[in-house]
Design brief:
By secondary structure, the chain is of the alpha+beta class. The chain contains four helices and three strands. It has one domain: Arc Repressor Mutant, subunit A. It has a three-stranded antiparallel beta sheet with strand order 1-3-2.
Amino acid sequence: MTHAPIPHASREARYVFAYLHRRGGSLRLGPLLRVLGIEPRTFADAVNELNERCWITIVWHEAGTPDDAPRPLTDIYRLCATRFGRRKYRSTWPVD
């Protein structure tokens, strides 16, 4: 049985995760956005990608229900690297 290869994370997602990992694995959103200096839409795409890969956990200011509409970036309190993400991110760099 062969498995389809999983595409590598985008450059922006690797950039966000690498900074998060270097700074201890947990950062509040404000300082993270300030230091990275990337566009909010690009940042949101990278965070969504990392969340789908289970590399990070998003900690919200207040709990929402599953039926809520997509929440804005201002509702995020902090991003935390997961154990899986810390283990996998070094082994998934693309070889160019």
